[in-house]
Amino acid sequence: MAGLVYFSSGSGNTRRFVEKLELPALRLPRVASDPVPPITAPFVLICPTYADGHGKGAVPKQVIRLLNDPAARALLRGVIAAGNRNFGKTFAMAGDVIAAKCSVPVLYRFELAGTETDIARVRAGLDIFWRETCLTPA
User: Fold this and answer.
1) What is the SS3 assignment for 110?
2) Does residue 123 contact residue 23 with C-beta atoms inside 8 Å?
3) How do residues 1-36 score in pLDDT, each as one tens digit?
């Protein structure tokens, strides 16, 4: 079954967003050195952004580690990015970086833990996305 994989830091914003979606999801470890659970099915990645003022460091190390695994990267179908609008042009930048490097679409962007509107849009969007997306690699 297709699902969600996400990273959430100690603030828990991304975790709270994913919990509100009420969809199957696998959390990447908070500690960068902890093992990444095996990914065995196509997934959408939900990732917060941790960029400095220039965009450096936008993608968390745990996510980079996951995507450096060719088998896991091959199962990535899209990315949903989180961020804080206070950071201007770097808002949700991790999604753009991942999309460009992995040739997948940015499906949505939300701020902090998202709103009820964000939750409804992502749920509906993922339902359409998984119905219309081929779950096998090209």
Assistant:
1) strand
2) yes
3) 459 999 998 888 999 999 999 999 999 998 878 888
Measure the CA–CA gap between 93 and 109, rounded to whole angstroms: 9
Place of tokens 């902890």: 34
Positive or negative torsion for Cα 116, 120, 123, 129: negative
Judge residue 58's burial from the number of C-beta atoms within 10 Å of its C-beta, 0-12 exposed, 13-18 middle, 19 or more buried: buried
Looking at the DSSP bridge assignments, the partners of residue 6 are 27, 46
Q: Which residue has the tokens 């060719």?
A: 70
Q: pTM of the predicted model, to two decimals?
A: 0.89
For residue 113, what are the CA distances in angstroms to 70, 102, 132?
30, 25, 27
